[in-house]
Amino acid sequence: MRIDHVVPRAEPLEHASHNRRLHFRSPAEDLRIEVTRKSLHLLILFCIPLLDISPTLPIVCLLAGLLVYSVSELLRHHGITVPVIAPLTERAARRRDGNRFVLGPVTLALGAMLALLIFDPLQAKIAILALGIGDSFSSLIGKSFGRIPMPLSDGKSVEGSLFCFATVLLAVFLLTGRFIPACIIALTTALVEFWPTKDWDNVLIPLAAGVVASLVI
């Protein structure tokens, strides 16, 4: 009895090329993703005016947002799309996120909540400024204009770190009117942001900035 071997039909070149393009991201696409991510990241700054209204209000808002996001992300991984939240998550996801639970918003909310729970209102505001402004603008400037790589930083740039320092310095100085403490806090933020801690810099930056603020202000 003769057994016929079925040879799989080769995938058309055009279709294979199309599939490869689905997994390729140009520098412009990476920058668009980073702009989306950091635009959402900046929303954490709304905790500052909410803190002026009530000490518990920003914590309640963060807990509610964290719960809604976590449920949306779990549903997304089971093929159920939550309007607005799931599309934004997919639009802002980076290569390293792949098909995993996107952790960035969770650590962002956690970092802000820890700052609000641990520090006094002024120190908490400084910590949230460092988290929202320093991390966001350092990443955007680094992606857009970074040319000089920082050693041991997993691809971060000198330009991004300098802009992180400058923006936090300006923000803290405008908030407190104290230049030297603002310099120390900005330097601390830039040093913590420099280390390749992935999404956990969202927790480390506000904690470091808040601790230093409690010592120098």
TrEMBL record:
Keywords: Membrane, Nucleotidyltransferase, Transferase, Transmembrane, Transmembrane helix. The chain crosses the membrane at residues 40-69, 101-119, 125-142, 162-192. InterPro entries: Dgk1-like. It comes from the Bacteria. One of its GO terms (molecular function) is ATP-dependent diacylglycerol kinase activity. The keyword Transferase applies. Signal peptide: none annotated. The keyword Transmembrane helix applies. This is Phosphatidate cytidylyltransferase. It comes from uncultured spirochete.
